[in-house]
Design brief:
- InterPro entries: Bact_solute-bd_prot1 (IPR050490), Chitin_NgcE (IPR022386), SBP (IPR006059), TAT_signal (IPR006311).
- This is N-acetylglucosamine/diacetylchitobiose ABC transporter substrate-binding protein.
- By secondary structure, the chain is α/β, with parallel strands linked by helices.
- It folds into two domains: about 200 residues, Periplasmic binding protein-like II (D-Maltodextrin-Binding Protein, domain 2); about 210 residues, Periplasmic binding protein-like II (D-Maltodextrin-Binding Protein, domain 2).
- The chain is about 40% helix and about 15% strand.
- The chain contains 19 helices and 15 strands.
Length: about 475
């Protein structure tokens, strides 16, 4: 198909339970869209009010769940719901950290599972799956009546922007997420207030001063996972937007020639270069479990901040001491000339699911997702993993743990100033390989700001010039 992009419509607005944020439309490439119903092997039942997706009630269902920070108990709850509704289906749930290793060969063979939680380091390239028509169009699911209220569609129960995240340059929707992820600077409110007697830094000068104060007490300002250096971008991305505005991050998504060498990007890297040079960063976590090692050091009080996502509250629960009061802060402003204000937040939908197009039970895969988006399931999801579900008002009135409560406050404070790194979804290899390598040498002080920006731009240019990679363009 090559490199193709066509603007589809004006910029859309996306909201989450407590705030709004802008999401761009993406190009309509109708030639890439699949029919959305799998193929002739897919089993269908009789459509009815009780069975709006025409699930074949005795058709087996197989679900693959990524067993990462969210574990898999939340998914088992839904699988049990499915079995209760369709007892003859005998649903089979499998959990693994190796999604691509186990699932991709089955996609190629034409015998895939019926639903895949395509997450983790070993996830499948969703852009390639869409281009090769290996995943089903989920528009039928979005148009279906919601589990709790037949008068409301599934689409209308979800936080806006979910459908756009799953388009990948097509008219259909090929991926749906289950949570709202908040990225930023995670910290212990107890440490900040009691140990350091400080407030959360709103400017970079205040951040440097806090790191200096922490160092005097034998505490690093930051910890980062050397095995996964790209985690640093979880804290840096909103800073790019603050410094250069939405145009700066749109340039990144659009693979523009100077996206990673702009003055805005330079100012952010220069700010972090000072943190590295003054040895405020605790490193040395170089294994594949580097993120867990980093988080453990952090919960033990060895560092003030970690670059992370809102899954950390659940993932680090076993090492988090009582009274830690986990919280997330937006990235501090660089100076008064920033294009976007303090509070700008990187918060996209998270934890993606796909239904393979050649699955034998495509309808069952979509039905599982319809069940997940029910009030009963999303509230259980929250109880199990302390993550914000991607369903409007799902956790209203519930008691919230510190991290989730802090995330909700950050979302509300950000309002319209929430940004999404679409390039992570569109070009995962770029993020996970090129940018990972560039961030590794930067965080160890082996490469300068100029060299780091050049390396990241080189990676973006490589993707832009590759005719085999589908290009998606923001409008």
């Amino acid at each position: 198909m090559g490199s193709t992009s066509v603007n589809r419509r004006d910029v859309m607005k996306r909201a989450t339970a407590a705030g709004l944020f802008a999401v761009p439309a993406i190009g309509a490439l109708t030639s890439c869209a699949s029919s959305g119903g799998g193929d002739e092997k897919a089993e269908k039942g009789k459509k009815s009010k009780k069975n709006p997706l025409a699930v074949k009630e005795d058709a087996p269902l197989q679900v693959y769940i990524f067993k990462g920070g969210y574990e898999d108990k939340y998914a088992r709850f839904v699988t049990d719901m499915y079995e209760k509704r369709y007892p003859e289906s005998k649903p089979d749930q499998k959990s693994t950290e190796k999604i691509s290793t186990l699932v991709r060969p089955r996609l190629v063979k034409g015998d895939p599972p019926d639903l895949v939680n395509n997450s983790g380091d070993d996830n499948m390239d969703i852009g390639k799956l869409v281009k090769n028509k290996q995943v089903a169009d989920l528009t039928e699911l979005l148009d279906a009546p919601s589990w709790d209220d037949p008068s409301v569609t599934v689409r209308d129960t979800l936080i806006p922007g979910m459908e756009d995240m799953g388009r990948f340059g097509t008219d259909g929707c090929y991926q749906l997420n289950i949570s709202a992820t908040v990225y930023g600077n995670w910290y212990s409110a107890k440490m900040l207030e009691e140990t350091l007697e400080a407030e959360y830094p709103r400017t970079w000068d205040e951040m440097l001063a806090l790191c200096k104060k922490a160092k005097a007490k034998g505490i690093h300002g930051w910890a980062y996972p050397g095995g996964h250096p790209r985690y640093m971008l979880f804290s840096m991305y909103a800073m790019f937007a603050q410094a250069g505005g939405r145009k700066a991050i749109e340039a990144m998504d659009n693979l523009e020639p100077n996206a990673w060498t702009s003055d805005a990007v330079k100012s952010v890297f220069e700010a972090w270069e000072e943190v590295v040079a003054k040895k405020y960063v605790l490193g040395g976590f170089d294994s594949q479990q580097a993120h867990v090692e980093m988080q453990t050091a952090w919960t033990k009080g060895k560092a003030v901040f970690v670059p992370d996502g809102s899954w950390v509250e659940n993932e680090a629960k076993d090492t988090t001491p009582k009274g830690f009061r986990m919280a997330v802060g937006a990235t501090p402003s660089l100076d008064k000339g920033d294009a976007m204000p303090f509070g700008t937040l990187y918060s996209p939908p998270g934890e993606p699911f796909v239904v393979p197009a050649k699955a034998k039970n495509v309808q069952g895969g979509m039905e599982w997702m319809r069940m997940f988006y029910s009030k009963e399931s999303t509230r259980n999801f929250f109880k199990e993993v302390s993550a914000i579900p991607a369903v409007k008002g799902a956790i209203d009135g519930m008691d919230l743990p510190p991290g989730v409560e802090s995330s909700q406050r950050a979302i509300k404070a950000a309002g319209k100033n929430i940004v999404i790194a679409f390039f992570r979804e569109w070009y995962p290899e770029l993020f996970e390989q090129d940018f990972n390598g560039a961030m590794r040498t930067f965080m160890t002080g082996e490469s300068s700001v100029k060299e780091t920006m050049k390396a990241m731009q080189k990676g973006a240019d490589r993707v832009a010039k590759n005719p085999d990679i589908q290009k998606i363009k923001k409008s």
